[in-house]
Amino acid sequence: MKYLDEYRDGNIARKLVDEMRRIQTRPWVIMEVCGGQTHSIVKHGIDHLLPEGIELVHGPGCPVCVTPLEMIDKAHAIARRPDVVFCSFGDMLRVPGSEGDLFTIKSQGGDVRVVYSPLDCLKIARSNPDKQVVFFAIGFETTAPANAMLVWRAFQERLKNVSVLVSHVLVPPALVAILSSPSNRVQGFLGPGHVCAVVGYSEYEPISAEFNVPIVITGFEPLDILQGTLMTIRQLETGRAEVENQYSRVLDRDGNRTAQDLVFKVFEVGDRKWRGIGNIGQSGYKLRPEFRDHDAEKLFDVAQIATIEPTICISGEILRGIKKPHDCPAFGTACDPQHPLGATMVSAEGACAAYYTYGRHLKKERELVSISTGSAA
Q: What is the four-CA torsion angle of 312, 317, 322, 324, rounded to 10 degrees?
């Protein structure tokens, strides 16, 4: 397809891999931050194409995956209320909480609705003045502008029956947490292209300098990822540690200032808990005090809900790049997309779901060479 096939050219892919092989002198571990990148890597078999010794590990960039179990339970507690219309994007409906999921609540009579934009909640609220309309606002910096717009519009229109359950997280503090861990293996990052399209990449420059680690902001097509990997290896091999922009056709250093201004009208930065990682200081958004009437966590008194993660699920280690899905004893057996134990299996961007979808759960792993053959994996 026009504007897509050129980023899936097998001949160019081979040249990029050959150049990696030419300059590589030692093993390197590189983390792709975004779940969309993980999905593309597994779908196209990019990790199989890389030279021996170049390992890609999967990061915490799947928004569903890093939403903590207790926040899922808070959402479910609100969604069960008869006076609530609970709205969410579709990928959250099957994420298991301590007791079932949103689909289960819907089947039991809860008014749970899938929306395609947060702003859909405004229309629902106007049509249902006797109900509280709650939107589950999760995600990274990428989705924050649209969620901020929902709150801003509700505030401006004085719609008292619209609120958001906020679970927004920020990528840079998570990278610092990973790099600061004694178990860290990561030597370079493929940075999150969609996040940086909103906020730019200036925040990554101090991280690169402090930890002496290359960060290459990278897109999502196969050639994007291969080029980003090559750029990272070049830095590692020459002892450089800088932020580079592979995804320059989409973003620049400053990002989208209009979107950023809207976000900071509505949100402020605060501490946030990450699934599998724990509390990270100043790593998420929360509503500013002037928007407290639209804060579902406070309106419905669910702030004190706390839960314990299932011990069999190793999603936390997967999200930190310590382990991969096939290291989990439950992967492909007790845990699959129909019966997920954790969010890394249920989310379309989760590493476990990607591995399962493209056959990595099979005893004899398929060789995924779609780029070199020019066919879909």
A: 60
